[in-house]
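Problem 12. The chain below contains 194 residues. Write out its predicted structure in token notation.
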Amino acid sequence: MKASPWQRRIERAEHLAKQHSFAAEILIFYAKVARFQEEFYGRLQAESEKLANSTGNRSGPPELQELIDRFSPFLSVVEKHAPAPLAAIARELQGSSRESWSQLLDASWSATESPAAPEEFLARAFLQPYAELLRLRLGMALDGYSQALCPFCGRKAGLGVLRQQGDGARRSLMCSFCLAEWEFRRIVCPGCGE
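Solution.
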């Protein structure tokens, strides 16, 4: 059976944690977050399909209630497994109202810049599976797209990837939020376009 993308991410983080003890704490934390994200992605997908097949009229995406309902369990995972400063922020957020969670998640969803505050980072990590689900559901064709910003969510690329191709390699950019990957010229800087 082929491993899911989530399982590959988890296995890679666990492998690197064993190999590099200096980074083990953050890699093990990432593996715990990725396990939560995998389960959350499955729940969002199931909820989306269930509500899409129902006849009831709803306003907004069918997954919105699931987003708010799962934020507290996400914060619990962070509180239990994160490095101490991030765990303290998760504990503080856990005591906030659902309305403040909704505002934080909405602001993080709309932001195109990298998270500046730890709360924004947590919100972005929580929303990442939802962004990936929406991108995959949309089924965008990326043929010919060559801009530096993500074609789905408009954010800056989080990383560049070199892949073997013929006698050379091609470069792709990858969004750190929705995980879209698109081809980008190797000799052009995605930051300044030069």
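Discussion. The chain has two domains: 5-53+62-138, 141-194. Students who got a different answer should revisit the alignment rule from Section 12.3.
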